[in-house]
Amino acid sequence: DTPGHKDFAEDTYRTLSAVDSVILVIDSVKGVEEQTERLMEVCRMRATPVITFVNKMDRDGKDPFDLLDELENKLNIHVHPMSWPINSGRDFKGVYLLPSRSLNLFESNKTKVANDIIRIEGADDPQLPALIGERNASKLKEDVDLIDGVYGALDRDSYLRAEVSPVFFGSGLNNFGVQELLETFLELAPTPVHRPTKERMVEPTEPKFTGFVFKIHANIDPRHRDRIAFLRVCSGKFERNKLYRHVRSGKDLRFANPYTFLARSKEVVEDAYAGDVVGLYDTGNFKIGDTLTEGEILHFQGIPSFSPEIFKEVINLDPLKSKQLEKGIEQLTEEGLAQLFRQEPGNRKYIGTVGELQFEVLQHRLEHEYGAKCRFEARNIHKACWMSGDETAIRDFMKFRQNNIAWDKDNQPVFLAETAFTLRMTQDNNPKIQFRTMVELAAED
Questions:
Q1: Which helix (H) or strand (E) element contains residue 209?
Q2: What whole-number distance in Å separates Cα of residue 26 and Cα of residue 56?
């Protein structure tokens, strides 16, 4: 739940599949939102360890104990407070750091950051009532005693098994509580872990290089139509200018200018190791889920794809730019900005996104990067469901409900259910077919 960015793209889920640990940011005012629950589904699929940061404590929000209950109930994970807030909103005084038994005090002033923090030792420090008030000091001591009795000490192994999430409170805008979060993250976060493939388990300590593409970004420089494929190194050593096997195509590829990215800066790298992410210039060779190796045939576990929340049909406003529109939609949906579903006859195209903002971004990029103008018309679609099970039953169902069948970017059939009721009735009437709103897709399939 990045503040101010409720609408995020499908590539958020894909990125999660490439990391070994996650920092989850929760809005103290809104609590756990639907997108967060989806993110946790991906984390649970991979047993990815999660550290939670409750943000915006300098605003009036939910009670901290209620937030902990909400995290456990909605995200299906145990929590363990590592810091504890003293009030919230205008009365926010700071956080008590439970492991070190120290207190970081905060002065609500957005023009200052770390200099606003005063450090004292211990919850029983005699200066505490003078610094935060007698009532706040008494309430803090009660809360800390309760937390110590309920949660005890953090078990790192439980965190690494993704069974418990350490929780910090603070204010990201004021850079308050962030330092403690990052220090704990460095202390607890796992080293690169093994990765499953269809053939075998790949260990990070293996000498030979393996990696997979989890994200593609098109038109970083619109003048050159360049694309960057983001590769997660899973084992061995990636080296610049060395030939690697592109498993899906069977081609050997060489990369003269691999990059690493940090914020807006990028640097050419000579080598990279397990856990690193490398940006590779792509001329159209890569798809999400592609594997690179030193020759071994491996297919890494597929990238998760969820049913979108909003569906709209693409209406071309300039028939003379049909090819540009087709290419733009294909490339932008490949990079994860949205999902594309095609329906025959008529080659109708439906775009599915998590939120409305993505349609605005897609429309703007199509016009300014590809010179293609279009509009989006809302369609009455509740969920996109991938089908599995009895093949004969699926073929018969697709003939019977052909007006509700579309094809995704990997040419897999998808059932477009108009309403939740329609979906339930369809599931009940077709017991031999599993209708899934999440699927793992691999480019090599």
A1: none
A2: 9
Give φ, ψ of 421 to 5 degrees.
Answer: -65, -45
pLDDT at 108 over 50: yes
Q: What is the DSSP letter of 319?
A: G
Residues in contact with 427: Cβ distance below 8 Å, sequence separation at least 6, in sequence order:
435
First to last CA, the chain: 32
3-class state of residue 114 by DSSP: helix
Q: Are 49 and 190 in contact (CB under 8 A)?
A: yes
Report in angstroms the alpha-carbon separations of 204 from 145, 262, 272, 292, 313. Answer: 42, 23, 12, 15, 43
Query: Minimal CA–CA distance to 347: which of 326, 317, 364?
Result: 326
- Structure token pair of residue 327: 């290419």
| 52: nearest Cα among 162, 173, 139 | 162
pLDDT over 70 at 110, yes or no: no
How many angstroms separate the CA atoms of 227 and 286, rounded? 10
d(CA 116, CA 104): 9
Sign for the pseudo-dihedral over CA of 430, 433, 436, 441: negative
- Cα angle 433, 437, 443 (rounded to 5 degrees) comes to 95
Burial label for 115, CB within 10 Å (0-12, 13-18, 19+), is exposed
Cα–Cα dist 31/70, whole Å: 7
- CA 413 vs. chain centroid, Å, equals 25
Percent of the chain with pLDDT over 90: 51
Write down how long the chain is.
445
pTM of the entire structure?
0.71
CA distance 289 to 229: 10
Residue 319 is which amino acid?
P
How far is 412 from 341, CA to CA, in rounded Å? 10
Q: Where are the alpha helices (DSSP H) in 59-121?
A: 64-75
d(CA 212, CA 192): 14
DSSP 143-198: HHHHHHHHH-S--HHHHHTTSEEEEEE-BTTTTBSHHHHHHHHHHHPPPP--EEBS
Tokens at residue 362, please?
A: 């897609």
The reported pLDDT for the residue numbered 112 is: 46
What is the DSSP-derived secondary structure letter of residue 309? S
- Going by C-alpha positions, the residue among 11, 77, 81 that lies closest to residue 48 is 77
Structure tokens at 402: 């052909």
Hey, what are 142's tokens?
């009660």
CB 106 within 8 A of CB 116: yes
Residue 293 parent element (H or E): strand 291-293
Instruction: Say which residue the tokens 């070190």 belong to.
Output: 100
